[in-house]
Amino acid sequence: MKKLSLLFLLLMSNNVFAQNFDINTLKELNLHRNRNLDASMQFISNSEYALSIATPLFVCGLGLATKDSSIIQKGVNLSVAIIVNTGATYVLKRIVNRDRPAVTYPFLQPLENKTNHSFPSGHTSNAFCIATSISLNFRKWYFVAPSYLWASTIAYSRMHLGVHYPSDVFAGALLG
To answer: How far apart (Å, rounded) are the C-alpha atoms in residues 8 and 64?
Structure first.
């Protein structure tokens, strides 16, 4: 029984540390952000919507235009990946049901008024899904490096905008 109690206390202290790390990191990023980057971060964050749809469509269209079945297959792979990832993110958001940071911590300054659930970050998840799919289907560094740079910038932007905790973004990146 003592070992079980000790294990419980250890897990609880780690959970408190993780929560403190989460909010302290977000507070630092959001409240002390470079406000000159706000519009750029909003633009980058919003690029996830367009590129998550446009990338698979572009690859499929390129394959059809060149009549290259391998490129068409890569476009289909990207399409299936983003559909499955979006579904998995939606289900996880409903299961975890975590409030947005500004709901719990009103001192934050979110630049978007989001009312849905926070965990995991859907923008980050989709961005990393696209980056991972590109890296698996187009193995050249000049496709892979910009894809992951874009996905990482999306992840940062979600914290800069004050709408996700670092753990939301990390989970989204892992899921993607």
So the answer is: 58
